[in-house]
Amino acid sequence: MKSTHHKSYSVGLAFGKFYPLHSGHIFMIEKAASQVDELHVILGCEAERDLKLFQESNLPKQPMVKDRFLWLQETFKNRPNIQIHVLDEAGIAYYPNGWKDWSDRVKSILKQKNVTPTVIFTSEPQDAERHALYYGCPVKLVDEDRSFMNISATKIRMNPYDNWGFIAKAARPFFVKRICIIGNKESGNLAQQFANFYNTEYISNGYINYIQRELNHKEHVLQEDDYINIALLHAQRLEESAYRANRYIFTDLDFVTLQSYFKTVFGHKNPLIDGLISHLSFDLTIDLTVDKKMSSRSAYFDTILEQVKSHLS
Ligand SMILES: NC(=O)c1ccc[n+]([C@@H]2O[C@H](COP(=O)([O-])OP(=O)(O)OC[C@H]3O[C@@H](n4cnc5c(N)ncnc54)[C@H](O)[C@@H]3O)[C@@H](O)[C@H]2O)c1
Question: Where does the secretion signal sit in this chain (predicted)?
Answer without folding.
Answer: none
